[in-house]
Specification:
It comes from Desulforamulus putei DSM 12395. Helices cover 40% and strands 22% of the residues. It is of the alpha/beta class. The strands form three sheets. The chain has a five-stranded parallel sheet, with helices on both faces. A five-stranded antiparallel sheet has the order 6-7-8-9-10, with helices on one face. Strands 11-13-12 form a three-stranded antiparallel sheet. Helix 2 runs parallel beside helix 3, helix 6 packs across helix 7 and helix 6 packs across helix 8.
């Protein structure tokens, strides 16, 4: 059973989603308001948020952006729902940080399958070993409170952006982040930089943590997509 928050201003759609998710055994919270949805997401920390794009202010895209910019909810799975089937809408939603997108009208079976897939991805993500305030993986120790990184027992200086980038990747080994997602989470969606900035900072981080930056062990490039932190730090690809 998962705890799921559904935010949609169409009460008939809200009730339909709630009915079908509860039939699958989930605990479902609902609201028609964007601000209330943000409040519930931050207070209840649900396992999944189902978010309508076409909400009155703030709309679903803005809510998604705010959730992704808050460390407490930045990794929360988000399924966007919209009556607009435009490819551009889907792309914008995914670039904002949504994990998946479903167009109205949808069948209960499709909704159930999307929800199961999203929850399964979260369950299978293997976080780095977290000891108190520290993230550990291989020879890397990242202290989340002191903003310090040690590599093979030696302190290494990181800029704030480099630190945040490494923290995001280390927190979710095996999860592939697009350049757009990393740009949004580290620099903020409205920051006037492009995705090449992500590549440059990845190179800087690799130079500081990798035994051989030209053949990285920790931060892997997923061609045509983005980057991930290796689940097996004992081998290289």
């Amino acid at each position: 059973m998962a705890k799921i928050l559904v935010v949609d201003d169409e009460t008939n759609i809200l009730e339909l989603i709630k009915f079908n998710l509860e039939k699958d055994g989930h605990l479902v919270m609902t609201t028609t308001g964007g601000e209330e949805g943000l409040r519930l997401a931050k207070m209840e920390l649900p396992d999944l948020v189902i978010l309508d794009v076409m909400l009155p202010e703030p709309d679903g895209l803005e809510i998604c952006r705010r959730l992704r910019s808050d460390p407490a909810t930045s990794m929360m799975p988000i399924l966007m729902v919209s009556a607009r089937g435009d490819t551009l809408d889907r792309v914008v939603g995914l670039e904002m940080g949504a994990d998946d997108y479903i167009a109205k009208p949808f069948s209960p079976r499709e909704l159930s399958a999307r929800v199961k897939a999203a929850l399964r991805r979260v369950k299978h993500e293997k976080p780095a070993l977290m000891t108190g305030r520290e993230l550990r993986s291989g020879g890397i120790v990242l202290d989340t409170e002191k903003f310090q990184v040690e590599v093979e027992g030696q302190p290494v200086s990181f800029t704030p952006k480099e630190f945040k980038l490494l923290k995001i990747l280390m927190s979710h080994p095996g999860k592939v982040f697009t350049r757009e997602q990393l740009l949004d989470r580290v620099w903020g969606f409205d920051f006037n930089v492009d995705t090449r900035t992500v590549d440059v900072h990845i190179r800087y981080v690799r130079q500081k943590i990798e035994p051989n930056p030209a053949n990285p062990t920790y931060i892997k490039t997923v061609r045509g997509v983005g980057y991930k932190f290796s689940e097996n730090t004992g081998s290289s690809e």
